[in-house]
């Protein structure tokens, strides 16, 4: 299915998405992107449908062509304090805060969102596969978050974050069992599955 350029015509519309919501470690990132009404990219899609190489090729093109974009995050500590759903909303609000051009309408990937100031919004399930601006936001959020996980992997190589980006892979959970947690882990999450936690 071809992606659409906008949800509501004749408005300055920003697409918003987050990355890292299901991870055991690291921040949750979010991006907000305002694209030109006639924007088109044959490769751009939901970031999960693209390879890492494709995402890294598309990212600078989005940043160059976008009317405006903002990227922000909530830390693991903030996630533990306010829960991952609220942290996802807050990260998206912070991303919108970074826009120099104030959008007149927001389209959000997913089915829930906390209203941002007085700007109208629409939640769109699987919106990152339907609208260019949400897809662009998903690519920015994902690539910026992956970049951050690469950086902190250097300090904590045992967890292999270069490979798993903090997601709950078997190797990541085994590393938590062996080495314990560190400052980047989300302590409010179930870091070990039940079978592993029996012998922890």
Query: How much strand content do the residues show?
Result: 15-25%
- CATH class of the largest domain reads Alpha Beta
Number of domains: 2
> Helix count?
7
Overall mean confidence score, pLDDT: 94
| Principal-axes shape call | globular
Q: What do we call the CATH topology of the largest domain?
A: Nucleotidyltransferase, domain 5
Question: Would you identify the CATH H-level superfamily of the largest domain?
Answer: Ribonuclease H-like superfamily/Ribonuclease H
Count of beta strands? 5
Structural class: alpha/beta
Helical percentage: 25-40%
SSE pattern, N- to C-terminal: EEHEHHEEHHHH
The second-level CATH architecture of the largest domain is 2-Layer Sandwich
Strand line-up of the largest beta sheet: 3-2-1-4-5
Unreliable runs:
none
What is the alpha-carbon Rg in Å?
A: 17 Å
* N- to C-terminal distance: 47 Å
Question: What does the main sheet amount to?
Answer: 5 strands, mixed
Helix/strand layout:
Elements: E1 13-19, E2 28-34, H1 52-65, E3 68-74, H2 76-82, H3 84-97, E4 105-109, E5 121-124, H4 132-153, H5 161-164, H6 170-179, H7 194-197
Parallel strand pairs: 1-4, 4-5
Antiparallel strand pairs: 1-2, 2-3
Helix pairs in contact: 1-4, 2-3
């Amino acid at each position: 299915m071809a992606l659409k350029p906008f949800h509501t015509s004749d408005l300055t519309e920003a697409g918003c998405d987050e990355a890292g919501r299901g991870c055991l470690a690291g921040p949750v990132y979010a991006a907000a992107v305002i694209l030109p009404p006639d924007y088109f990219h044959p490769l751009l899609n939901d970031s999960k449908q693209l390879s890492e190489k494709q995402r890294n090729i598309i990212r600078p093109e989005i940043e160059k062509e976008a009317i405006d974009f903002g990227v922000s995050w909530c830390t693991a500590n903030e996630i533990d304090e306010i829960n991952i759903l609220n942290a996802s909303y807050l990260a998206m609000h912070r991303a919108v805060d970074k826009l120099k051009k104030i959008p007149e309408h927001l389209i959000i990937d997913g089915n829930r969102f906390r209203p941002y100031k007085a700007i109208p919004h629409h939640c769109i399930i699987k919106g990152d596969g339907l609208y260019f601006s949400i897809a662009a936001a998903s690519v920015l959020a994902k690539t910026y978050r992956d970049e951050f996980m690469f950086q902190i992997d250097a300090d904590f190589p045992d967890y292999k974050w270069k490979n798993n980006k903090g997601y709950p892979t078997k190797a990541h959970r085994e590393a938590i069992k062996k080495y314990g947690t560190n400052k980047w882990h989300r302590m409010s999450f179930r870091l070990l599955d039940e079978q592993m936690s029996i012998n922890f």
